[in-house]
Automatic annotation (TrEMBL):
Cell compartments where the protein resides: Cell membrane; Membrane
Name of the protein described by the UniProt record: Serine/threonine transporter SstT
Name of one Pfam family that matches: SDF
NCBIfam families: PRK13628.1 (NF010151)
Reactions that this protein is recorded to catalyse: L-threonine(in) + Na(+)(in) = L-threonine(out) + Na(+)(out); L-serine(in) + Na(+)(in) = L-serine(out) + Na(+)(out)
Protein family according to the UniProt entry: Belongs to the dicarboxylate/amino acid:cation symporter (DAACS) (TC 2.A.23) family.
Encoding gene (name): sstT
Highest taxon above the source species: Bacteria
InterPro entries: Na-dicarboxylate_symporter, Na:dicarbo_symporter_sf, Ser_Thr_transp_SstT
Regions that span the bilayer: 16-35, 47-70, 82-104, 147-165, 185-207, 213-238, 288-313, 325-350
Length: 420
């Protein structure tokens, strides 16, 4: 019994990032030496992702409602600058992807069997579906993890509960604290979950199927890295007027890492909320911007849609002029905001983008099938980019409103906070 206690103590006292790295290495080794066993431990990863997805909707509802109910009139929330950064980042990502596709044209082998799916036919349909998704009941929104509707109900409840009895607001705060503690417990199991995810993914998929699309992946991942390491830090700097990289590296370690393996922005909401709490950000801000960012901040999706659409045109020999390329940037940016925060959510937007060039739907769905093949890499990088950016922009907006000295101390405390 004492030995088990010492093992548990050593586990809990070790840095979470180090534990995740150990789980990653063990998963790779198991997939290499014992593929059959690696497939079986995939259940651990599946349970971890399901636990995150299960707690996230209720957490968002309770957290946002509690924050708004306790919010004092006149206290700034800094939500607007975060939304502006979301918009600029997504459009910049789409524009970068279009430029990279012209500089490094790629082609596809369009002989893949059609993928199943029901893609939207136009950007109007995407925006229509996004608007319709707001007006659903709270129970249905929670059951389907419809974060747009959850946010709408949470905001409405929070605003009206400002006039509730003090005991009601205390109860909401206690509920928020309870769900936060549940989330902390789930996140502590991330090393075990990532071990299962990595082992099963490598055992089932491997990387052999990716070699034929190495150039396509290089263009796509290269764009995502440029956005993550250059574009987004620039936007954060313009807001904070301080070095954004300590903050960025903290977000990469604690948010992008888990998002990379869960491949779900929705599942990573609890991780981001916990990180914002550790960074001591304004709760009134991050309780809204983090779940909202999981729905509309989709720079990675804009890159995926743009690169895959232009790869299709290069394959078919279709000439794309500058106005059409600009239109593709706009369509990709707006459509990305309607992508659900789940694995592979951006791929079904490809037929809508290729329709701008008159590409047949059957061919477009073959491109979607290719997307599922490379998704083990593409979707992981895409989700990591999307999710950690939510924290970076939220922190930048919060720090940018503070006194310069306090801002610099807060940013520099990020890496230290991640080691606690």
């Amino acid at each position: 019994m004492n030995t088990l206690k010492r093992i548990a103590s050593a586990y809990s006292n070790t840095s979470l990032v180090l534990r995740i790295f150990i789980g990653l290495v063990l998963g790779i080794l198991l997939a290499y030496f014992a593929p059959a066993a690696a497939v079986k431990v995939g259940l651990l990863g599946e349970l971890f992702v399901l636990a995150l997805k299960a707690v996230a909707p209720v957490l968002v509802l309770v957290l946002v409602t509690s924050s708004l109910a306790a919010h004092q009139s006149g206290q700034p929330t800094h939500v607007r600058p975060v939304l502006v950064m979301y918009l600029i980042s997504t459009f910049s990502a789409a524009a970068l992807a279009v430029c990279a596709s012209f500089l490094f044209p790629t082609t596809l082998a369009l002989d893949i069997s059609s993928a199943e799916g029901n893609p939207p036919s136009s950007i109007i349909e995407v925006l229509h579906n996004l608007l319709i998704s707001i007006f659903v009941g709270p129970i249905q929104a929670l059951n389907t993890s419809n974060y747009i509707a959850i946010l709408a109900w949470a905001i409405a409840l929070g605003l009206f509960l400002r006039h509730a009895a003090p005991t009601t607001r205390v109860f909401l705060a206690d509920m928020s604290d309870a769900f936060t503690r549940i989330v902390r417990f789930v996140i502590e199991q991330a090393p075990i979950g990532i071990f299962g995810l990595v082992a099963s993914t490598l055992a089932v998929s491997g990387f052999e199927a990716l070699y034929g699309y190495a150039r396509l992946l290089m263009v796509m991942v290269g764009c995502m890295l440029v956005v993550a390491l250059l574009v987004n830090p620039l936007l954060a700097f313009l807001r904070m007027r301080r070095n954004p990289y300590p903050l960025l590296f903290t977000a990469l370690r604690e948010s992008a890492l888990t998002a990379f393996f869960t491949r779900s922005s929705a599942a990573n909401i609890p991780v981001n909320l916990r990180l914002c709490e550790k960074l001591k950000l304004n709760k009134d801000t991050y309780s809204i911007t983090i779940p909202l960012g999981a729905t509309i901040n989709m720079a990675g999706a804009a890159i995926t849609v743009s690169v895959m659409a232009l790869a299709t045109t290069h394959t078919l020999g279709i000439t794309v002029d500058l106005p059409t390329a600009l239109l593709l940037c706009i369509v990709s940016s707006l459509a990305a905001a309607g992508v659900s925060g789940v694995a592979g959510g951006s791929l079904l937007l490809i037929p809508m983008a290729t329709s701008l060039f008159g590409v047949d739907t059957e061919i477009a769905m073959q491109v979607v099938a290719i997307g599922f093949i490379i998704g083990v890499v593409q979707d992981s990088f895409e989700t990591a980019l999307n999710s950690h950016t939510d924290v970076v922009f939220t922190a930048a907006a919060s720090y940018g409103s503070e006194h310069p000295v306090a801002t610099e101390q807060a940013v520099r405390s990020g890496p230290q906070a991640s080691r606690e």
